[in-house]
Amino acid sequence: LNQKFYISQSKKTIIMSHLRSETMQLFQLTVPKDDAWSVANILGSMSAAHFIDLNKNEQPFDLPYTSRIKMCDDAERKLNFLIQECKDNRIRVNKPVSGENFEELIKVVRQQRNVAMDLLFDNLDTEISNLEQFVSQQSKSL
């Protein structure tokens, strides 16, 4: 995986940093495919990286992560169905308090399931699919 990105020299949190350009440096990073998930996650958690799309001229269906994006869209659809069923049946669903809280919850789930971060989505997707199937069958039998 060969990726270019900019890193902000200051991690300003004031609003002005979002309205004006900050001094940036361009880096090109080559990462083994197996490490791409964790490296992108670390860079994303820094809140100081801006990735450059090196595939602007490629058709979206030719890109390596297109099938993964479709899987995410499908998982989101399943989750929305389950959330709606919970609302319809007056079952409370608690959202994470913040992004940081969500990241902590993900770490806990990953540790409980004892799976690598890059395999966690597949693990959760299987569970979500099974839950969707179960809830659909239960709804039909009512």
TrEMBL record:
Keywords: Hydrogen ion transport, Ion transport, Membrane, Transmembrane, Transmembrane helix, Transport. InterPro entries: V-ATPase_116kDa_su. It holds the Pfam family V_ATPase_I. GO terms for cellular component: proton-transporting V-type ATPase, V0 domain; vacuolar proton-transporting V-type ATPase complex. GO terms for molecular function: ATPase binding; proton-transporting ATPase activity, rotational mechanism. It is a multi-pass membrane protein. Its main location: membrane. It is found in: Membrane. It comes from the Eukaryota. Essential component of the vacuolar proton pump (V-ATPase), a multimeric enzyme that catalyzes the translocation of protons across the membranes. Required for assembly and activity of the V-ATPase. This is V-type proton ATPase subunit a. It comes from Strombidinopsis acuminata.
